[in-house]
Amino acid sequence: MPRLATAIHIDHPTTGERLLLQPGDEPAPEVADLITHPDAWEPDDDVEQYDDEDDDPDDDGPEDAPAPRRRTKPTTGE
Fold it and tell me: Using one digit for the tens of pLDDT, what is the confidence trace for 16-34?
């Protein structure tokens, strides 16, 4: 179950009670579904982290794209 990385103030979806959740808490699924900010959660240990950009097959960043070709003006021969 995911754990919180930061304190959260949230209203319980069923009771409407104001909750203060602390870092390290593992909220119930109905409460956790309401916390959508990714920085509120501790990193998932099961997700593989890429240290080297060459190892990430989904990285299509600008460093992988070919450089754009420069357009040149045609010469008129004058």
Answer: 999 999 999 999 999 999 9
Amino acid letter for position 59 = D
Non-local CB neighbours of 18 within 8 Å, separated by 6+ positions? 9, 10, 11, 12
Beta bridge partners of 11: 18
Ramachandran bin of 38, using left for φ above 0, alpha for ψ from -120 to 50, beta for the remaining angles: alpha
State pTM to two decimals: 0.54
The residue among 50 and 63 whose pLDDT is bigger is 63
Q: Which two tokens stand for residue 46?
A: 């099961």
| Residue environment code for 2-35, b if the CB has 16+ CB neighbours within 10 A, otherwise e | eebeeebebeeeeeeeeeebeeeeebeeebbeeb
